[in-house]
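Risk register update: the risk of archive-format incompatibility is retired. Evidence:
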Amino acid sequence: MKKWIWLMLLVLMAVAVVSSRGSTFFEQRPSPEIVESIPVETPQPHPELKEVDSAPQVSADRHIQKLNFQRYTTQERSHTRSYITTELTKLC
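Archived output:
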């Protein structure tokens, strides 16, 4: 029985190798050529507009120190949520 299984596997492998040589199934088809190229326009900066740094300054060290603890219990997770919510409302 084992000989028949090995024989069938060998036959299947031989059929796969022979059929893959003549078919176009594994061949990569050429990619389509680009018909038209569209130029990309880059926006020109406006000299009258000045950039304003409106991003609030955030001290990451302080937040890392406040949140540097394990959050296994519901109370610990609640403490983390309330801290983050409080700090985000301060920024608004």
